[in-house]
TrEMBL record:
This is NADH-quinone oxidoreductase subunit F. Pfam families: Complex1_51K, NADH_4Fe-4S. It catalyses: a quinone + NADH + 5 H(+)(in) = a quinol + NAD(+) + 4 H(+)(out). SMART domains: NADH_4Fe-4S (SM00928). The lineage of its organism: Bacteria, Pseudomonadati, Pseudomonadota, Gammaproteobacteria, Pseudomonadales. It comes from Pseudomonas ogarae (strain DSM 112162 / CECT 30235 / F113). It comes from the Bacteria. Residues 346-391 form the NADH-ubiquinone oxidoreductase 51kDa subunit iron-sulphur binding domain.
Length: 451
């Protein structure tokens, strides 16, 4: 599939056949309301799901499509849906949309909610039908005030049209949908912290198991999906599994399309719907236009602040989870950031780790104490006051806070860019070590309890 870049003077040519998420977008950037959405085949998939498909068939179709979560974790959506209990006596179930988009350098969900609110509602309606959930919540980042306004208006439009509420489309199925604005915490992107916050509790992640599919909101079975994930559901139901799989490039293990972007000092920063499997180089050169005049690409992050840095030679990696894993990091949200050659990596990492340290829920010791410790060391190195052994201590913290060492994935994501920055740009860190005869021992290796 060949796509062209879009900017103010050269709009991308979108169609329903190639751009299931964005083909309905208006050129003026205004929201697509109910009448226009339905004129563009909106809610046709919902009508098909309600009239022609059994609930289990919807789940199986999504599973067969290969749709994976678009929030960063990439868990198969159909498999997640299949974890919901089959017991028909459990008549209270919840569907939550994770719209707490607080990952730095990520704004894809915001665009969908502000400009295509009915696409999200239709995706949730079909999902609710499949999962037998009678109530849904869109847990929205509090700062997204325009998205909140547009979603609330779209919900009212759908209610008035009989697409939400009681006896939807004459099926006997009831589904209520509410927009809930959060108080503004990064940790609410973790699904169980989101559930705690929705219940009015402190936004701490919960111990798993039990998983939300068994014990979620108010102790009831709950499914949590990302905005972009849910927005893929209508096209899959309307046009089928084979078509959806055909959208991805050869070699990609992920199916369909993905909202990808590039920010930083590039000529054409933006957001595009592209097939999984495009290369980072296509995204950077053909869509973002490369670096602005006078700047050189130093490194880049493929999918938000919680992903590791890559070098320019890694641009040929394919943009899908496995493709990015081959060069040592994660796909994340798919919105990349270019770092130019004027940026000092120590200062950049100090800024990042300050954010992650502030956003820690404080529940577990490695995250609560380890992230501020990294900030303290980075501040000293940034001022040229670092001590011998500080870099080794930072690398020790990367190990202490890595996957499986903390209660949730917040800390591993926070230290991944730190570890990669030291790996590729260690001389910049060494330049901040003050000359001294005293040698500070590096952080000891992690102690294994019971070893």
């Amino acid at each position: 599939m060949t796509l062209t870049s879009f900017g103010p003077a050269n709009r991308i040519q979108r169609s329903a056949e190639t751009h299931p998420l964005t083909w309905r977008l208006r050129d003026d950037g205004e929201a697509v309301w109910l009448d226009e959405y339905q004129a563009k085949n909106g809610y046709a998939a919902a009508r098909k799901a309600f009239s022609d498909m059994a609930q289990d068939d919807i789940v199986q179709t999504v599973k067969d499509s290969g749709l994976k979560g678009r929030g960063g974790a990439g868990f198969p959506t159909g498999v997640k849906w299949g974890l919901m209990p089959k017991d028909e006596s459990i008549n209270i179930r919840y569907l939550l949309c994770n719209a707490d988009e607080m990952e730095p350098n990520t704004w894809k969900d915001r665009m969908l909610m502000e400009q295509l609110p009915h696409l999200l509602i239709e995706g949730m309606l079909i999902s609710a039908r499949a999962l037998k959930t009678y109530r849904g919540y869109i847990f929205l980042r509090g700062e997204y005030t325009t998205a909140a306004k547009h979603l609330n208006r779209a919900v009212e439009e759908a209610k008035a049209a009989g697409l939400l509420g009681k006896n939807i489309l004459g099926s006997g199925f009831d589904f209520e949908l509410f927009v809930h604005t959060g108080a503004g915490r990064y940790i609410c992107g973790e699904e169980t912290a989101l559930i705690n916050s929705l219940e009015g509790r402190r936004a701490n992640p919960r111990s798993k198991p039990p998983f939300p599919a068994a014990v979620g909101v108010w102790g009831k079975p709950t499914c949590v999906n990302n905005v972009e994930t849910l927005c893929n559901v209508p096209a899959i139901i309307a046009d089928g599994v084979d078509w959806y799989k055909s959208l991805a490039r050869d070699g990609s293990e992920d199916m369909g399309t993905k909202l990808m972007g590039f920010s930083g000092k590039v000529k054409n920063p933006g957001l595009w719907e592209l097939p999984f499997g495009v290369t980072g180089r296509e995204l950077f050169e053909d869509y973002a236009g490369g670096m602005r005049d006078g700047y050189k690409l130093k490194c880049w992050q493929p999918g938000g602040a919680g992903t590791g840095f890559l070098l320019p030679e890694h641009l040929d990696a394919q943009m899908y989870a496995g493709g990015i894993a081959k060069v040592g990091t994660r796909m994340g949200t798919g919105l990349a950031m270019a770092v130019d050659d004027s940026v000092n990596m120590v200062s950049l990492l100090r800024n990042m780790e300050q954010f992650f340290a502030r956003e820690s829920c404080g529940f577990c010791t490695p995250c609560r104490d380890g992230l501020p410790w990294s900030v303290k060391l980075l501040m000293a190195i940034e001022k040229g006051e670092g001590q011998p052994g500080d870099i080794e201590t930072l690398l020790g913290l990367v190990g202490f806070l890595g996957p499986g060492k903390t209660f949730c994935a917040h800390a591993p994501g926070a230290v991944e860019p730190l570890g990669s920055a030291i790996k590729y740009f260690r001389p910049e860190f060494e330049a901040g070590i003050a000359p001294t005869s005293a040698v500070v021992p590096p952080l000891a290796k992690p102690i294994v309890v019971g070893a």
